[in-house]
């Protein structure tokens, strides 16, 4: 009788332990969850992301920019101090500052629907950036959760994919190309807002014979250019709160313009 009671008590004691063990068992990833991972393809060839995969955040698809840009033949550089990504290919120069909702390509400002972000120490950008800044055709396949990147037949509409060029105005486009030239070294342009001393600073390099001005809000200021083309503009005070600037250069009737954002120091 004593043996039966002991066996019964032992069986009852083991029941909660078994239940606890079942509850503590790690969940397994279902095949469906694996299929929901976002993929990226360029001309039907999948791009590999070794350390950070594309993600969907608040309904936006964000992709690591370095693997994609390098797969498309671009050179990518990262400045940790200014948190700036620089992308170069041929004559194209693209600059993107993390947390800012604009990018700059060859002096032209491109607005992003969401800013670039740092995820797992990697810079991720909205898919739209690939189309507007790198000039590629981008589509989304919801069935396979895949970003489809393809060569864009018309690469003259950078930042204007939603506004097709009017074929009835060729003379206007030709005139613009005659007067607008590259005077600034776009990669050298930097804007800083030094909060400690309450001043704005814009530095860079331009054609030495150019006349340069910087626009802050509603005010325009002349900029002194050194013989080697370098310049350093600094202004204190009443323009507190301004986040962006515009540089304009002119030489022999030719013009160049650069829009930029101030980086707080």
UniProtKB/TrEMBL annotation:
The keyword Transmembrane belongs to this UniProt entry's keyword annotation: no
Region Disordered: start-end pairs: 154-177
Gene3D superfamilies cross-referenced by the UniProt entry: Copper amine oxidase-like, N-terminal domain (3.30.457.10)
Keywords for this protein: Signal
Pfam families from the UniProt entry: Cu_amine_oxidN1 (PF07833)
Signal sequence segment: 1-24
InterPro entries the record matches: Cu_amine_oxidase-like_N, Mao_N_sf
All copies of domain Copper amine oxidase-like N-terminal, residue ranges: 43-149
Lineage: superkingdom: Bacteria
Listed SUPFAM superfamilies: Copper amine oxidase, domain N
Basic and acidic residues composition bias: residue spans: 163-177
Name listed for the protein in its UniProt record: Copper amine oxidase-like N-terminal domain-containing protein
Source organism (scientific name): Brevibacillus formosus
């Amino acid at each position: 009788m004593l043996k039966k009671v002991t066996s019964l008590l032992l069986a009852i004691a083991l029941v909660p332990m078994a239940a606890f063990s079942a509850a503590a068992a790690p969940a397994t990833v279902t095949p469906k969850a694996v299929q929901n991972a976002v993929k990226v393809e360029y001309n039907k060839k999948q791009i590999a992301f070794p350390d950070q995969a594309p993600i969907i955040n608040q309904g936006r698809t964000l992709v690591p920019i370095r693997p994609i840009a390098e797969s498309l033949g671009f050179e990518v550089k990262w400045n940790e101090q200014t948190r700036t990504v620089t992308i170069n290919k041929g004559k194209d120069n693209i600059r993107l500052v993390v947390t800012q909702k604009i990018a700059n390509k060859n002096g032209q400002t491109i607005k992003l629907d969401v800013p670039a972000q740092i995820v797992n120490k990697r810079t991720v950008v909205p898919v739209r950036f690939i189309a507007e800044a790198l000039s590629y055709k981008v589509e989304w396949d919801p069935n396979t959760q895949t970003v489809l990147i393809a060569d864009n037949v018309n690469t003259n509409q950078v930042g204007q994919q939603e506004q097709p060029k009017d074929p009835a105005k060729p003379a206007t486009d030709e005139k613009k190309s005659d007067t607008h030239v590259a005077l600034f070294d776009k990669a050298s342009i930097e804007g800083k807002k030094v909060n400690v001393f309450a001043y704005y600073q814009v530095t860079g390099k331009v054609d030495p014979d150019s006349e340069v001005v910087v626009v802050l809000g509603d005010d325009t200021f002349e900029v002194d250019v050194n013989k080697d083309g370098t310049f350093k503009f600094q202004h204190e005070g009443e323009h507190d709160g301004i986040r962006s600037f515009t540089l304009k250069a002119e030489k022999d009737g030719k013009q160049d313009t650069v829009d930029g954002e101030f980086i707080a120091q």
